[in-house]
Design goal:
Family: Belongs to the Dus family. Dus1 subfamily.
Keywords: Flavoprotein, FMN, NAD, NADP, Oxidoreductase, tRNA processing
Number of domains: 2
Strand order of the largest sheet: 1-2-4-5-6-7-8-9
Distance between the termini: 38 Å
CATH superfamily of the largest domain: Aldolase class I
Number of helices: 17
Helix content: 40-55%
Oligomer: single chain
Biased composition (Acidic residues): 405-416
Number of strands: 9
CATH topology of the largest domain: TIM Barrel
Biased composition (Basic and acidic residues): 392-404
Strand content: 5-15%
CATH architecture of the largest domain: Alpha-Beta Barrel
CATH class of the largest domain: Alpha Beta
Largest sheet: 8 strands, parallel, barrel
Shape: globular
Cofactor: FMN
């Protein structure tokens, strides 16, 4: 027999629930107030200290790091990290993302978390091999019956709105390398993706966040996100639920362009925000910056001292903090090998504070100009469409000539923002939560 939650009527789908949240929890530092400016769910990186930093600089809606549904149920220390720790009133509105595919496990996990957040999100975006092995993330999109069963089960029982973060469906065979098959056997990525999104809307989801890439488009094959398909989704389903766009957002100019092209209710950023949180700030930071990377690193460290990521901050501790330092100071790390070695090996917040001071002193000696700072870490896999097209063509030729096999998705540090290989071991030096 179901528990008492089974008799609770599903929450009605309110087309304006996101707009109402933004009015209930306004952020005066946001560049605009009628659209959601969203911090993406990022494993070990959208931790509480980072969310507070992003809100300081204009984000008006945040997602938690991805929460593993099985772990939050069976591991008490992991559960404490994600339940009862949302103590800062400034950290609203907030949506918690869960990963998993078993309906009962996902529901139990969601019910543990929902008292502390404004919505629950299902991760259907992670492209890594760990998600394939764990049966979650982007691989759920290719199991339509299982995904719809999960959505309907959660919608029936949850007391907060349910959202799903999706990608475009990949060609079932070899699409990312553009290998042509017979014309009558072509796979229409936009049409297949839009059809699935419609079924999710019909199943009762309250929000869709669409990452305009397939799970194969990552690292050197990232390419530009497909905003046109997102725009089509808005035309088809935007009158029923709010829709967010994700992908190819590294400045407010791109936010503005994306809003004009897609007419979405909000724009989500991940990697660009990791390197430069003020993308959404009320004071424009392009073409010239007024807030430098050293300042951001310092301010994040102050939040991390207040909310240690391994305690109430929802990260893995010093590893989480080091990762943020790496993102903020990426350009300096490329220029100074010894400085890079120090950040990699530092074990305490005071050590990392010393790193930031070293960087600050270096900038003073070199007459560093904040206004001339540019994104560095974000652009490591984004050399433009021409470069991506060449890589795709090379890969296509290799496959056609039998020179190599299509690779499995690897679990790499550069993809942690959507998934992360961090679910084994309790010792931080052996991996811990990262």
């Amino acid at each position: 027999m179901d528990d008492f939650s089974s008799i609770i009527a599903p929450i009605p789908v309110d087309r304006e629930w996101i707009a109402k949240l933004l009015k209930r929890f306004p952020n005066p530092n946001a560049r605009c107030h009628d659209k959601a400016l969203v911090v993406a769910p990022m494993v070990d990186q959208s931790d509480l200290p980072f969310r507070l930093l992003c809100r300081k600089y204009g984000s008006n809606l945040c997602f938690t790091p991805m929460i593993h549904s099985g772990l939050v149920i069976r591991d008490e220390s992991y559960r404490r990290k994600f339940t009862g720790t949302w103590l800062d009133p400034a950290d609203r509105p907030l949506i918690a993302q869960l990963c998993g595919s078993d309906p009962d496990t996902m529901l139990k996990a969601a019910q543990l978390v929902e008292p502390y957040v404004d919505g629950i999100d299902i991760n259907c975006g992670c492209p890594q091999g760990i998600a394939k092995r764990g049966d979650y993330g982007a691989y759920l999109l290719e199991q339509e019956e299982k995904l719809l069963k999960l959505v309907k089960h959660l919608v029936k029982h949850l007391r907060v709105p349910l959202s799903v973060k999706v990608r475009l469906l990949p060609d079932p065979e070899i699409n990312p390398y553009k290998i042509k098959r017979p014309e009558d056997d072509e796979f229409d990525i936009p049409a297949a993706s839009l059809a699935l999104y419609g079924k999710l809307v019909d199943a009762g989801v309250h929000l869709l966040t669409i990452h305009g890439r397939t799970r194969k488009q990552k690292q050197d094959l990232t390419g530009k996100a497909d905003w046109d398909t997102i725009a089509k989704a808005v035309k088809l389903y935007g009158h029923r639920i709010p829709i967010f766009a994700n992908g190819s957002i590294n400045s407010y100019e791109e936010v503005d362009e994306c809003l004009k092209i897609t007419n979405v209710d909000g724009v989500m950023s991940s990697e660009a925000l990791l390197e430069y949180p003020p993308i959404f700030y009320k004071i424009p930071q392009t073409p010239k910056r007024t807030i430098g990377r050293v300042q951001l690193a310092n301010e994040y460290l102050e939040f991390a001292q207040q909310y240690p990521p391994n305690e109430g901050g929802q990260g893995s501790g010093i590893k989480c903090i080091r990762m943020h330092m790496h993102r903020f100071l990426h350009k300096d790390l490329q220029d100074d090998i010894e400085f890079r070695k120090k950040i990699i090996t530092d074990k305490t917040i005071p050590d990392l504070a010393e790193c930031i001071e070293i960087c600050r002193q270096k900038h003073l000696r070199e007459n560093h100009v904040i206004e001339e700072e540019k994104l560095s870490w974000y652009t490591r896999h984004r050399d433009g469409r021409e470069t991506v097209a060449k890589l795709q063509e090379q890969r296509r030729q290799q496959l056609e000539n039998g020179d190599c096999k299509e690779e499995e998705d690897n679990d790499d540090d550069d993809s942690i923002q959507e998934c992360g290989n961090f679910f084994s071991g309790n010792n931080e030096e052996e991996g811990g939560d990262y």
